[in-house]
Task: structure prediction
Amino acid sequence: MMSSTNQKGRSGGLAAGTVDPSEVAVVCVECQNGVLGSDSVLPALAADARGMVANVGRLLTAARGAGVRVVHATFEGFLGGGEPGPAPLWRALRASEQWRPGHPATQVIAELFDPGDLVVTRHHGLSPTWGTELLPVLRSMGIRTVVLAGVSLNVALPLTAADAAQDGFRVIVARDAVTGTPADYAEQVLRNTMALLADIATVDDVIAAWAESVVQA
Result:
């Protein structure tokens, strides 16, 4: 675990970055049935994420209440007979080759979805951001701060954080609303990689910052 001193020091500066909810989006990465559901193509990750989902739900509920945009970044499979790349991870994701828009596996898990949320899908690659519409869409909405939640700390979240930071967004990682597998490795990624790219805070830290912003307004 991150020391209490470091964790407090990081979360203490959140309010300055979340004063205007119109400039903040929670980006919930790959919290979809085919990844976190009962028929997950990554069952070990889905098992490790069970306790995380409730925290993501609290974060998203608070975001909606504060007027913060909720965005789901999902993978819908390959279009037009597309093929996965050579990365070994694709061998573990062979079932996802059958996914298409509208397939149940591509849908956000029910407990995390609200009709007012924005869903930004992709149809290629392992990164939610590289060569996709996600960051341009956020920028077009006036978003300047991205709060990351979802999965996984193994691949998708570090790629997203790096691309968002490179593109000039402030990135906050809600540490108890993200996970990877195994859990001890995920903690190392938070401490040694994500902390170099983003502010690390708890869900409660982020919610408190939004509440303070509402009071100040």
Q: What stands out?
A: Residues 21-212 form a domain with the Rossmann fold fold (CATH 3.40.50.850).
